[in-house]
Specification:
single chain; alpha+beta; 3-stranded antiparallel β-sheet; 43% helix
Length: 230
């Protein structure tokens, strides 16, 4: 099978659906299996053009589709996963363990727990609100960023939109920040589905799917794409 380059947003969505998941970048030794490798004629990053700028696609995907998630899912870098494939990633990455089970096993950081405790009791929160509500003000900015990446890589949370800060006068200001929610809030029922999937089988199916589109994928890159985080 082959993924042909996309030339606009509609074709991009089609490629994600065809592949099932698509990292932002992946070492495939000539075969295209990433957003970066599949940019076709007329596609240019950071122009602000909704139809031809892949940076805009992340928000359009979240607002215009119902079965594609966007987040830092691949080696702490961004990418896309469809609803059909999310349970396999949950099973492969954390054997479908709950956050509490991972925390008790010492596999989640203190900062990640602070963030997840906020999100599991709230439909969604912007990153700046997480910083405020989680009392991250006294910690380095990188601490929150690392916790958010850790939770996304372990398939606990995902991006669900973006929002600006609101001033005391009720006016938005500054650069938009990501809004996050739990994966199970984004795709209802995926946690339960993941519990019925053998982790080894899930990892094998992910690997087979990549090889189907990119037979010459770098083995180390493929292992990193699938491997458990932490």
């Amino acid at each position: 099978m082959e993924l042909t380059p996309f030339r606009n947003f509609g074709e991009f969505v089609d490629r994600v659906h065809t592949a099932g998941f698509l990292p932002g970048a992946l070492d495939c030794e000539g075969a295209a299996f990433s957003v970066g490798d599949l940019c076709g004629d007329g596609v240019v990053w950071h122009t602000g053009d909704d139809d031809h700028d892949p940076w805009q696609y992340r928000i359009r995907v979240l607002s215009e589709t119902e079965d594609i998630a966007y987040g830092k899912f691949f080696s702490k870098k961004s990418g896309y996963i469809t609803r059909d494939w999310m349970p396999r990633f949950i099973a492969a990455r954390r054997r479908a363990y709950s956050f509490d089970e991972m925390w008790q096993a010492g596999r989640m950081s203190r900062c990640a727990k602070k963030v997840y405790d906020l999100l599991r009791d709230t439909p969604a929160l912007a990153s700046h609100d997480i910083r405020s509500l989680g009392n991250f003000a006294g910690e380095k900015k990188s601490a929150l960023e690392s916790a958010l990446a850790e939770l996304q890589m372990n398939m606990f949370i995902t991006v669900c939109g973006e929002a600006q800060k609101i001033s005391a006068d009720g006016e938005p200001y500054g650069w938009p920040g990501s809004i996050f929610c739990t994966v199970d809030n984004f795709f209802a029922g995926v946690e339960e589905e993941a519990g019925g999937i053998d982790p080894a089988r899930a990892a094998g199916e992910i690997a087979d799917n990549v090889r189907a589109f990119a037979p010459n994928v770098n083995p180390r890159a493929l292992k990193a794409l699938i491997a458990q985080y932490r």
